[in-house]
Automatic annotation (TrEMBL), chains A, B, C, D:
Pfam families from the UniProt entry: Aminotran_5 (PF00266)
Single GO term (MF): alanine-glyoxylate transaminase activity
Gene name of the encoded protein: sgaA
Transmembrane segments: none
Source organism of this protein record: Rhizobium meliloti (strain 1021)
Protein name, as recorded: Serine--glyoxylate aminotransferase
Highest taxon of source: Bacteria
Family the UniProt entry places it in: Belongs to the class-V pyridoxal-phosphate-dependent aminotransferase family.
N6-(pyridoxal phosphate)lysine PTM positions: 197
Length: 401, 401, 401, 401
């Protein structure tokens, strides 16, 4: 069972491209060398491109996306500040939980799992907040637990329409570099991501893009912080040197990963994620199953959470995949445990890999008792992929014997 | 198109397991160090296990399988010696061609491509060879060009039945370590393989197993040789040191590869190759297509050569696979160019990888105009794999959220 | 100048052994797989061995040693708590600075750079603290900036002698796994280290060992924390699963690194660090130069800070090493900038590597105008190393031609 | 003893640059893919630059330098052809031995080991060969066993002066890409090298450059050959495809290695080899020892064979280096076994690495009883290296703390 490649379709950490693995497999380097900034400084410039921001500042913390969340809150807000959040999956839940634990006054809207940020309710709350007690509005751009993408631009519009000056915070951990995200166009004040999703690296970097307005808020923030403080961590983007030991190998991997992304083109990367995701979704629908995301507008291009038939235990599907077919799917978390399994389709993937995910899922589902037709999902996805790639069909190329 | 993993289904060089890649990725070592034999000597012992021989001697030449062929001939035969061969694919053809170029008197039987060694005709020729002019009988165990496996044991029986003392030479390049091969049991005198097939390494090692009887013939062989001479190359198996610079990284890779094979168990490796191959064949038949191998008894467990429909150009199928789906298939060679494409299913593979080969082939065939049903081959293979793996189904394993 | 190996003699991040590099160079894995705990759980058991604790609990945070410091403080103390610290180098300075920024009431003793923890003054302060306002005593076991090792056991004795119940915190970032450290024997309540020093990994893991008494204090700690909270991070040591995405490759590297340490034996590792360091020191003294550490009792076995002659700029020495000789030394920081350069001699090193450090330093010093004799430091170190290794001299071993 | 880097100073196989290791650490590729020639074809063009030939043709055989020798002889000469050779070390000896075994009529001049090709005697023999029976003249450009470089241009002059039309064959295994070699300028007809010396790769490629005149001779050559035949192996340089499975990883490594060489500049590479070698020689002379090469004109820039004092066994020196100091030296072979040890200084090396070789050699010599002064060789080499690098001294570069 351990022969051949393992098939990783969790929604992160994602597959590491071979070029990135190679870039990280180097002897240790001198992080105080005169040429170390030649590595570091361009990373900041290029990451701005990934967030699509000209005005924002980038902060890179050794840590995870969770650390980036904490950095976001502790550098810009104060204990007791009211923030408007919504909760519709495990990761938006954890974010709200952290905000509370760090001392914020969290106004959290509970939404059906399978839906996204309730923009109209946000609008109502903002409008009703005549005393402007809400200091920040939080948006989970892509809820990894349910495969739901929310409309950040609409939240911006709600802020603008109501004339509310609250900061707009976005969790882009499983969207940035994979799903359209436009920091400046959408007036986002602070966005966070991690290295282990669309950036195709191991976990270990929490990345933030921070608007000038959020940096202003930072100036009056009083939450104690040290490791995650912007004060200390602005140095790397200015000098190329870190205040404490950076994960040099990850920085080298980030260089390689950004090179891959820009060589493909960020727009092309995003289009590819949509194309691959759509194939998976067509497969799911061909099985006669539904996504956890309740409406097409919520469909995520980085992860599909699939509701199994009532008489099937999604945990068994996942166990089958791992133990019998060397394939890893994501589990249903918390409220949807046992009811959904997830196919992550972000990062370094191609069409045939997605077909292998569907093929493994079909077998795992059928082994778990699901009455779906063998090959049906694969066939639906094949037809979609052929229709998309066909446009670029090559002529017959002679090959040597 | 260059995202994600490439899908390599040529019948060699095969996918390199990650553990083997890692084992080869080391600083250069001192090939004259006192502990270098600790690496080298066990390789010879373990390779005997792979050839299933106790009596044979192993020779390891830096070179390819073709070099091993040359070593076999030039060390044991003499110019003008008559040898009995048969030709039914590009690789048996090349072997016979080499034998002629090296000065042997080649009695070569031409057989329909798609069939294997003509045992009965061999028997007749041996029986008719009253003057015992035939010094060696050659058997291409697995013809990689047509996906045909021949019956070595039956050739041995023909030799025994006719009381003929000719040497029995076997080309096991694409069979050994993947398809049942029993050197001692079958009375094989000389078998050759290369590093880049069942041994899952890059090309660069030609490997021979030589019986005591063949070594006797060697003593009276007069063909000039130096690089490929057994005299010089017996040292490594005795002392652990090579007469000229060995490819140390490949030796380290071979160590890792043999460890993988023995950890799985050679019988299990062979059974896995059969299981995986059978899934591919069921897929092919579900498409309504035929193998190049004309009868079930010839079916190869390491490579399937698939005949495309009359109105389809197999070269276009292969071009589609490579250019549109990042998938490499083997081409039809020489006589069958354009008529067949090949799926290599040997080495480091698992079920889902074989399904991805079928999925990519289905799309490539359909893009080339073949009227086969989308998903049909995948479905047939899935059912086969499920039936085989189901026996070892795990219970539900709880996973952490 | 960029040919050959670079020579890294900064006191961290240290050279990564090839075996560790290989262990980290793997495809991404499923961090929720049923067998993931097989990797994770033994790490915790083995790290207890490295800290020499039976009773302590291990916490592993994705982050750096600085993050581990923050975790230590924020999980066990409360804002306003008085702590006793001392400052005699850049890293003890930064630790005290963090303590203040996190809201502690820091009683910080300034000591001459080149000396270590002032045990007698600690004793006096503890004795005078009749109201037991001091909640914790901090010891920088090895000050990386000055190459000074302090006496942790003596601080424990001071606590015991005065009957003071304050917690004993140790910064072991540049000592643990390299210099003798005995958590249980010395009654240490909390010790921190990072992955990038004696553990020979890239930066990215902050590691803590926490005594039962410190865990008790944790129960009543009220500092807001989330990322670095013990509550969330106790799961991995119990279940093998992390509360947020772990740096899997680093965990695999840690496995390999611990395997190397235990194969050599922790005592042998520590003895080797002493042997290698002593050679470097003999070289320094043969040059006629002094260490920053003012007395022999302070000499560090992991880093030597070397005071350059008055008319020499240590920054030029370092610049020469890097630019002319592909060799990295550590800089003098803050108060000793320009006055010292540092040779890190911890982690994956051997005698000849240390000789190359001395050889490069000799050239770099002479190029910067220092009047030291060429080869003198190397010769002194050679004699020391020969005297130490000679005991284990092998007989003549025949080598193959 | 197994900590840290091993120190490899054998004269091949040489240290593999990290960039080359990385380039070879890739998944297996499709050697029949339409874009495979994009890798292969430029290698041939670039190798012509390494041999400094415009007119020559390159052949690349999977095998070793020994295989390249065999290819050279068997493709251009005929059994019974007289060739003029000379023997003054183990490798020139083996070459002559091969020539005899392959059926040539070898006129071999025995020269004192420590000298090189006897140009005047060659001249006399050529002049005396009125019937022009000598078909080829062989020159071992660099005798690896004794560290002797011969004068190829002078042999060309001898041929020209005598009007002799014999082919000029050069063994450049340990010179090409490291010591000045000019195929066209020197009228060399056939030169061979291997991948594992100046090209800094693992063994596994035998490389030949062949003049138009030698290709003419090839047309009338009748030695049986197959694996090493030019007929079959001209395809790769024309089509990019190999007649049998190529060692793809080595080709990728060769790409990286050529990139490194051209980035540094071939002239700079050769100058560096001279600079590094001269430091080693100054160290040897500072010890009061002599090279095996009897005159300065024979000194090799890729390997120094060092004669140990009479009462010292060179094998013990080598054993000490390996077992006590993790350092590999080359052994004295055959006639000079026990009398010399060799320091290889070719390939991916820098000054500090050479100093570490001298430092390890000093200890190994002294441990074996040699009365040399500790540090003396290192000091002499340091002064040389400082004098050479000093010219390019950088200004003080500020480093971040």
């Amino acid at each position: 069972m351990r022969n051949g490649t393992s098939h990783l379709f969790v929604p992160g950490p994602t597959n590491i491209p071979d070029a990135v693995r190679r870039a990280m497999n180097v002897p240790m380097q001198d992080m105080r060398a005169p040429d170390f900034p030649d590595l570091v400084l361009p990373l900041f410039a290029d990451l701005k491109g990934v967030f699509r921001t000209d005005n924002g500042s980038i902060f890179l913390f050794p840590g995870s996306g969770t650390g980036a969340w904490e950095a976001a809150i502790s550098n810009t807000l104060n204990r007791g500040d009211r923030v408007l959040m919504s909760r519709f999956g495990q990761f938006s839940h954890l974010w709200a939980d952290m905000a509370g634990r760090l001392g914020l006054d969290v106004e959290c809207l509970d939404v059906e799992w399978g839906e996204g940020v309730p923009v109209e309710e946000y609008r109502r709350r903002l409008d009703a907040d005549k005393n402007r007690r809400i200091k920040a509005v939080f948006v989970t751009h892509n809820e990894t637990a349910t495969g739901v993408t929310s409309d950040v631009a609409a939240v911006r519009a709600a802020l603008d329409d109501t004339g509310h000056k609250a900061l707009l915070f976005v969790d882009g951990v499983s969207s940035i570099a994979s799903i359209e995200f436009r920091m400046d166009d959408w007036g986002v004040d602070l966005a966070v991501t991690g290295s282990q999703k669309g950036l195709m690296l191991p976990a270990g970097l929490g990345i933030l893009a921070v608007s000038p307005k959020a940096l202003e808020a930072h100036a009056s923030s009083t939450i104690e912080r040290c490791y995650f403080s912007f004060e200390d961590m602005k140095a790397p983007s200015e000098t190329g040197y870190f205040p404490y030991t950076p994960p040099t190998q990850l920085l080298l991997g980030l260089r390689a990963s950004l090179d891959l992304i820009f060589a493909e083109g960020l727009d092309a990367v995003i289009a590819r994620h949509h194309r691959l995701a759509e194939g998976v979704r067509r497969g799911v629908h061909a099985w006669g199953l539904n996504l956890c995301a309740t409406e097409k507008k919520w469909w995520s291009d980085t992860v599909s959470a699939i509701v199994v038939p009532e008489d099937v235990d999604a945990r068994q599907v996942i166990a089958n995949g791992y133990s019998k077919y060397r394939t890893s799917f994501g589990a249903g978390l918390s409220k949807v445990a046992g009811r959904v399994f997830r196919i992550g389709h972000l990062g370094d993937l191609n069409e045939v890999m997605c077909l292998s995910a569907l093929a493994a899922a079909e077998m795992s589902l059928r082994d778990a008792g699901a009455k779906i037709e063998a090959g049906s999902g694969v066939a639906a996805a094949q037809e979609w992929y052929r229709s998309q790639i066909g446009l670029a069909a090559p002529n017959l190329q002679e090959r040597a014997a």
